[in-house]
């Protein structure tokens, strides 16, 4: 059986399980379940702390896992990213009191508090900056107020909590993270079960990003219509019973669907509709 690690809690847990369910895999019904066997797909899922997943995968005890890019890099484990999953996005940045520093180049001799010391230490070393890093678990904003550090490095979304603590974001982002599939470095690339698993997840990603669009248009407007809906390879075009009309079907990006429908209507297309895609293979 393919052995896969899944986050057992936190912001990655729910979306990861939802994606696996969409991909046709059995998932746990209760949060207390630590192992779920899916015999139909020959997969065994292990629900682990997100921070530990890269370490388990690197050890070779588990074949692949889902975790955050930030957690993978911070672990220093001998594992690598093989597929981004487009959820759990976050930005990792430095912050400090106004006037303390303009960017990392001013951090010399300072102490930086963070929950991700591996990422920060590497970032500082890569830029040749001599600064100390202290590890804290959560609520790192208070480190400056309590005099533990002059700078913090943390996940930033809106920046509201930092501003409320009297801090400002400085410098360029250290890292942009999202959920990713990871495997042990040097693992066999053509493992058939791994490839099937990745194809299923890629199918979910495409299905979430596209809709199927159908419409009728005059034959003389077909080339213009097809330019608006080129599809992946090309659209499907079928003649209608009424002479001079054709039916067109194509996949279009979901984010552009309403605009494309407007443009098609202006072109003279009618009976324009979209349907969700639940699964696909490209």
TrEMBL record:
Keyword entries, A-Z: Amino-acid biosynthesis, ATP-binding, Cytoplasm, Glycosyltransferase, Histidine biosynthesis, Magnesium, Metal-binding, Nucleotide-binding, Transferase
Gene3D superfamilies membership: 3.30.70.120, Periplasmic binding protein-like II
Keyword Nucleus: no
Activity regulation behaviour: Feedback inhibited by histidine.
Domain Histidine biosynthesis HisG C-terminal positions: 207-278
Organism in which the protein naturally occurs: Streptomyces bikiniensis
Domain ATP phosphoribosyltransferase catalytic: 49-203
Cellular localisation: Cytoplasm
Family annotation (SUPFAM superfamilies): GlnB-like, Periplasmic binding protein-like II
Entries under InterPro entries matching the protein: ATP-PRT_HisG_long, ATP_PRibTrfase_cat, ATP_PRibTrfase_HisG, HisG_C, N-reg_PII-like_a/b, N-reg_PII/ATP_PRibTrfase_C
Main location, first listed in the record: cytoplasm
Regions that span the bilayer: none
Name the record gives this protein: ATP phosphoribosyltransferase
Pathway: Amino-acid biosynthesis; L-histidine biosynthesis; L-histidine from 5-phospho-alpha-D-ribose 1-diphosphate: step 1/9
Nucleotide-binding among keywords: yes
Reported function: Catalyzes the condensation of ATP and 5-phosphoribose 1-diphosphate to form N'-(5'-phosphoribosyl)-ATP (PR-ATP). Has a crucial role in the pathway because the rate of histidine biosynthesis seems to be controlled primarily by regulation of HisG enzymatic activity.
């Amino acid at each position: 059986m393919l052995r896969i690690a899944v986050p057992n809690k936190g912001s990655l847990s729910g979306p990861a399980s939802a994606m696996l369910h969409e991909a046709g895999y059995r998932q746990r019904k209760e949060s207390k379940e630590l192992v779920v066997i899916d015999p139909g797909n020959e997969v065994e899922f292990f629900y682990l702390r997100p921070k530990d997943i890269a370490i388990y995968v690197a050890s070779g005890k588990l074949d692949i896992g889902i975790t955050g890019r930030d957690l993978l890099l911070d672990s220093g484990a001998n594992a690598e990213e093989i597929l981004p999953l487009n959820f759990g996005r976050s930005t990792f940045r430095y912050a400090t009191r106004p006037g303390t520093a303009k960017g990392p180049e001013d951090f010399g001799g300072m102490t930086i508090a963070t929950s991700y010391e591996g990422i920060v230490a590497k970032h500082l070393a890569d830029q040749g900056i001599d600064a100390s890093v202290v590890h804290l678990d959560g609520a790192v904003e208070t480190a400056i107020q309590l005099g533990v550090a002059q700078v913090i490095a943390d996940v930033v979304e809106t920046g509201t909590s930092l501003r409320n603590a009297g801090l400002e974001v400085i410098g360029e982002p250290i890292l942009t993270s999202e959920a990713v599939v990871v495997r042990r470095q040097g693992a066999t690339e053509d493992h058939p079960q791994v490839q099937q698993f990745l194809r299923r997840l890629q199918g979910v990603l495409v299905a979430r990003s596209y809709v199927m669009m159908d419409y009728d248009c005059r034959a003389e407007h077909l080339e213009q219509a097809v330019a608006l809906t080129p599809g992946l390879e090309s659209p499907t075009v079928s003649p209608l019973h009424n002479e001079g009309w054709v039916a067109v079907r194509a996949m279009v990006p979901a984010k552009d669907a309403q605009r494309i429908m407007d443009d098609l209507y202006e072109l003279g297309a009618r009976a324009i509709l979209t349907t969700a895609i639940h699964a696909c293979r490209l």
